[in-house]
Each structure stands twice: as C-alpha cells, then as structure tokens.
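Class prep. Sample record?

___
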Amino acid sequence: MSEPTRIPAPDGVAPAAQYSHVVSATGRLVAVSGQLSLDEDGKLVGAGDPAAQARQVFENLGRCLAAAGAGFEHVVKLTYFVTDTAHLPAIRAARAAHIPDDRLPASSAIQVAALVAPEFLMEIEALAVVGEQGA
C-alpha cells in the first residue's frame, strides 16, 4: 500500500494547524457521501449537541470507509458542512479520536444556512485513497 504524502505548508503558503494543505496518494479512490448524525435505525443522535453529533458522524464515516475496504488512515480529504462554525471544535475533537494530528487530511469547512433538516448541525464527507495491491 502506498502511504499518502502530506504537505502541511507548501512554500509561500501560511501553515495551517487543523489540516494539511496538500495530500497526494496513488490507488483506488473511495468517496463517502456526506454523513449525518443518524444511528443504524435512521434516528437522530445528539439533538442540539454538536459533540454528540460529531462523534456519530465520525462513527458513520468509519463504517462507510470499512465497507469499501478503507479506514481513516486512507482519508485524504474531509469536507465539513456546518450550520455554525462554532461547531468546529467539537468536530475536531471527534476527528482526533480517529485521525492523529500528524496524519491530518486536506479539509474544507463550509458554513451553510441549513442542512436537509433543521435538527442536523453538520454533515461531513470524505475522500480516501486505498493503495494499489502490491504497491
């Protein structure tokens, strides 16, 4: 398996503490649709609680990645859609339980007016690259 290459601060670009500016990898692409804080029965987890919602979203991301033969170690990009940027610390804490600081993916955070239903505070999607067999 090829290891993703992370470039946290390319020359001439201000360093970022919470993500890598560039991540490159070779292999099979795994795209995970935006995940919400729903349990396996489709019920909301963590009404009004960004930390609980973030934990559930990352659990769902992990299950989706595993279904494709991937894990958080393969994630090269996360995109966060949040109804309030004040939720970002809770998201970072949930992410830290799955991705160490020295393996941060590229990331984008977008504040949106609303998600599919008002009870959802965030939606997170992932791109992962699984190394080619024999690489």
